[in-house]
Amino acid sequence: MSSRVRIGLVGLNFGRHIARELTASNARQHLDLVRVCDQDKDRALAVAESSHTPACFDMDELLADASIDAIGLFTGPVGRAELVRKIIRRGKHVVTTKPFEVNPEAAHDVLVEARQLGKVVHMNSPSPVLSADLQQVLDWQQQIDLGRPIACRRDIWASYREQPDGTWLDSPQHCPVAPIFRLGIYLINDMIRLLGEVESVQVTQTRLFTGRPTADNAQLTMQFKSGAIGSIFASFCVDDGRPYQNSMVLNYARGTIYQNTHPCSIDPQTRTATLSLVTNGGTSGPVIRNAAPGEISGGYQWDIFSRAVHGEPLPNEVTVDQIVSGLRVIHAMTLAAQTGQSVKV
Question: What is the DSSP string of 16-83?
């Protein structure tokens, strides 16, 4: 593969971070940022200047550019499926962000259409192929007789002190159970890859510091169809110098896997992980195996996107059903938050 994928960015509120990543990281080996676009002209011009890239203010202008291979779509999730449909029908591939959509059926339909059209649609969560940390978990499952999964507990936190700004982030309907929707979505998608389909969900949420009308402290409990139980704690309220730790305790009938549970500082930019597997060694005591696969889920797999755009088959690629399953959990979570009851997925 000799040519980089020529990409234009749409939506520069969050997309400005993507522009920085595409112009100042290893992503440049795989993608060539050729244009940035936002309806806010000042924002578009500012990102254009910082990325040394031309600006435009209408997505149709990007779609009319035959030299552009792909669109990086970083608008809000509400109605994103229709924007993706518009892009793929104009012959462009798409890379976007989590959560992919708020409407599971709309997401399913456009993802199926993209595959029928031969267009790539990737996002950072669920990732196109398994990240190194999830692959390590599956490797241990295959190599060691751990028995059935019993439970999984995952935590993610940071310190935000946000004020309302009139965006979708202020809407309990469009941003339900906000810490889970914005941060915990990674962990929902990970659990589905490891534990399968979810049967029902329950929610607890509070508002402690945020100025927004949405929660900033929340927990989601999921009952999987296998009988396993999953829980995710996500919060914008904790300032301990260890943000975005993505810790995990995953119990099996005959072992437990720990990820990033020790008190160390992790740079979210490096996306690193350390894992330990503990099994019962009988009279000799516990057997501990350690691994440092490096990459944790949630990062943009720019090299994988480029390979897919160039027509290379991807082994064990995420399925449409796996993507949509996470969105169905979010939909059920929204209803659980509204009713205070357990909701079937």
Answer: HHHHHHHHHSGGGGTEEEEEEE-SSHHHHHHHHHHHT--EES-HHHHHT-TT--EEEE-S-STTHHHH
Rg of the chain over CA atoms, in angstroms? Answer: 20
Two tokens at 70? 């792909």
Residue type, 36: V
Please, which residues have CB within 8 angstroms of residue 141's CB and are 6 or more apart in sequence?
none
- Mapped onto helix, strand or coil, the DSSP state of residue 105 is helix
pTM > 0.70:
yes
> What is the DSSP secondary structure assignment for residue 254, as one 8-state letter?
T
Q: Are strands 275-280 and 286-291 parallel, antiparallel or unpaired?
A: antiparallel
Residue ranges, the chain, pLDDT below 70? 1-2, 264-271
The strand pairing partners of 5, in sequence order, are 31
What phi, psi does 340 have (nearest 5°)?
Answer: 75, 15
Rounded to 5 degrees, φ, ψ at 155 are: -130, 140
Strand 247-252 to 149-157 pairing = antiparallel
Instruction: Show Cβ contacts of residue 238 under 8 Å, excluding neighbours closer than 6 positions.
Output: 157, 158, 159
SS3 324: helix
